[in-house]
Amino acid sequence: MRTGNTIYLDHQATTPLDKGVFGEMLPFLTDSFANPHSSDHASGWTAAAAVNAASAKIGALIGCDNDEIIYTSGATEANNLAIFGIRRLSQKCYRKRIITTEIEHKSSLAACAAMSNDYGTEISFCRIAEDGQIDLNHLEEIISEEILLLSIGAVNSEIGTIQDIKAIYELASRFGVLVHLDAAQMPLASDMSGAAGHADMISLSGHKIYGPMGIGCLYVKRQLQSEIAPLIYGGGQQQGIRSGTLPVPLCVGMGAACDLLQRLPQIRESLRRKNLMLWDALSALGWEISLNGAPISARHPGNLNVRFAGFQADELLGALQPNLAVSTGSACTSGTPEASHVLRAIGLSEDEARSSIRFGVGRFTTDEDIVRAVELVADALARFEAVGLRELV
User: Fold this and answer.
1) Closest Cα to residue 308, out of 358, 356, 370, 376?
2) What percent of the chain lies above the pLDDT cut of 70?
3) Using 50, 70 and 90 to split pLDDT, how confident is the model at 53?
4) Domains of the chain, start order
5) Range of weakest confidence among 92-101, 125-134, 249-258
6) Predicted pLDDT at 331
């Protein structure tokens, strides 16, 4: 896929809005523009029905009921709502601890840090392996009835690692621990039809699944909803968990994107084929290139995090502009001078982390895009070595 003349390979940062999804949104941007909370007239009822239908489509994707879907502005807000939302519970019960890992999205890590600073919640970090998998033996060692919440990413956005959410939930359930999954990357990585049965809260994002930006949601198990303290107060919409007028077109778009994924189960197989093609082509260039994270067969099918030994990733990215859109990691940490916290947490050195680039193929990426992208990378590497910009390995 191209944006203008740029080959776009950054689909973990965002996916393009599917034209069919936009088509379903369009009537609610123009004709059916009523407030879904206007309960006194038919136009409001129509808008509310559209939101409910969208919630049902999201629910069908993860295996929950539509009244368990709480819309947010995106996965960052959803993660914050899940983590800060338990503050009410933490103040009235003996459980005062949260378990997470060091490879989580910054929105989760920052929320956990704030819970520690503002509410005295103790944060424990579960060990992870070099491929990003949670160390279940260590989790079993540190989990107890003192733990209130286990918050983890179901699929890592930087290295593509897919966690065993069933095993994790079964372990947490033995101790009555609530489980929150940051699943923004999960819909394109693996089947989510039973995900709601393996978590108490799940964060999702519209723009990671060919839906619109500015919309996400948090699945909150019905039995837990009365215990979640809101971040936003107002008119008491969405069971009082998140007040504010719902953006009907965005809700409709997110529902349509979830429905699209259910109708395109072959998308993961297609992504994996393209990803393997990209990895094979990069590996054949003759440079010292390593894969960060899980093996190709056991990671997000569109994710490829690659280390170019002896080269600085930021300089390489600059040389690839404006022809190729790839990144050094999460877009939500752009501008941060430190090397990727995810790569450092799985054991890479500062230099190794700074030499790593994340490629993300997508639904509309063509074989020609991949061939051309590899040519651009090869040309940049050759130019860097020719002018002596390659560091000694």
Assistant:
1) 356
2) 96
3) very high
4) 2-16+265-386 (3.90.1150.10), 19-263 (3.40.640.10)
5) 92-101
6) 56
Q: How far apart are CA 295 and CA 243, in angstroms?
A: 42
Structure tokens at 111: 């929320």
| Position 336 pLDDT exceeds 90 | no
Q: Give SS3 for 309.
A: coil
CA distances from residue 95 to 83, 91, 135, 202, 333 in whole angstroms, order as listed = 14, 9, 23, 21, 31
Catalytic residue among 64, 112, 251, 332: 332
Confidence (pTM):
0.95
Characterize the bridge pairing of strands 216-220 and 289-291.
unpaired
The yes-or-no answer on residue 332 being catalytic is yes
DSSP assignment letter at 340: P
Place of tokens 């034209």: 19
Question: In the chain, which ranges are E strands?
Answer: 2-3, 6-8, 69-72, 97-100, 122-125, 147-153, 178-182, 201-205, 216-220, 289-291, 303-308, 324-325, 356-360
Q: How many angstroms separate the CA atoms of 9 and 365, rounded? A: 8
d(CA 239, CA 254): 20
pLDDT band at 265 (very low <50, low <70, confident <90, very high): confident
In the block, residue with structure tokens 């009365």: 226
At 337 the pLDDT is: 60
For 144, the 3-state DSSP assignment is coil
